[in-house]
Amino acid sequence: MSVAGALRKWARGHTERSRYSPVGIAFHWVMALLVLFQLGWGYYSSWLPAGGDKLLAYQVHSAAGLPILLLALARFGWRLLIPGPINDADRQGWQTQAAYAIHYVFYIAFFGLPLSGWVMWSSIAEPGPLYLAGVVPWPQLPFDQLPLTTRWRIMDLAEDVHLVLVITLLVVIPLHVGAALKHHFWDRHDVLRGMLPEIPDAEDPRGEAKHKPREPRLPSETAPG
């Protein structure tokens, strides 16, 4: 059996129980934490006055942003190799289509934000070296031979793209979180449970094997006994 076949067989043991694989879960939560950090740190950095502190803050921002680009590539490849599970939320018609659309928007932001940040950093004059996670040297894009006015235009365009994608994330993240909570607490779907570290049923305080979708109650069940 090939390595890809062995991985699919291993992941199938999770997806057949309406769960994401541990690798998929790790991708989701690590990227979620990095994105939330970047949004907060980017806002903080924008308020710093020009100078050494602002440059250091942007270096931290880039050091945390470049891993998002690599993780997005790895996560996209993993999803092509190991499809996610079919869960209760995948059977909700327009809601499912909206969820898929939001996931595509997330991927556009995951690629677009670090790429536009890389372009911005490379287009200004000698801002300092880039480091992946603050450790591994990262090359700048070859803009140094371009005329200064062209570099400023590139920077302005990249900055506009960066801002639009940040605003987009500020819109879709609450939608994504709200939908997950609605599926979990109101519809009693298994989608959020499948993305959390697994709790053995013996330790689950609800004592249930899995969520059951909410169903309408019959009149006989609502009548006083």
Distance between the termini: 60 Å
The domain tally reads 1
Secondary-structure-derived class: mainly alpha
Shape: elongated
* Strands, total number: 2
Strand order of the largest sheet: 1-2
Count the DSSP helices.
6
Task: Quote the CATH topology.
Answer: Fumarate Reductase Cytochrome B subunit
Could you report the average pLDDT, rounded to the nearest whole number?
A: 82
The proportion of strand residues reads under 5%
* Helix content bin: 55-70%
Helix/strand order, N-terminal first: HHHHEEHH
Enumerate the spans where pLDDT stays under 50 for 5 or more consecutive residues: 201-207, 221-225
Biased composition (Basic and acidic residues): 203-218
InterPro entries: Cyt_b561_bac/Ni-Hgenase, Cytochrome_b561_oxidase, Di-haem_cyt_TM
Membrane topology: Multi-pass membrane protein
Transmembrane segments: 20-44, 56-78, 99-121, 161-181
How would you characterize this protein structure?
This protein has helices at about 5-15, 20-45, 50-80, 95-125, 150-185, 220, and strands at about 130, 135-140. Helices cover about 65% and strands about 5% of the residues. A hairpin with a 3-residue loop joins β1 (about 130) and β2 (about 135-140). It has a single domain (about 5-85, about 95-195), classed as Up-down Bundle (Fumarate Reductase Cytochrome B subunit), CATH 1.20.950. It is mainly α and about 220 residues long. α2 packs antiparallel against α3 (about 50-80), α3 (about 50-80) packs across α4 (about 95-125) and α4 runs antiparallel to α5. Strands 1-2 form a two-stranded antiparallel sheet. Its main location: membrane. GO terms for molecular function: electron transfer activity; heme binding; metal ion binding. It is a multi-pass membrane protein. This is Cytochrome B. It comes from Sphingomonas koreensis.
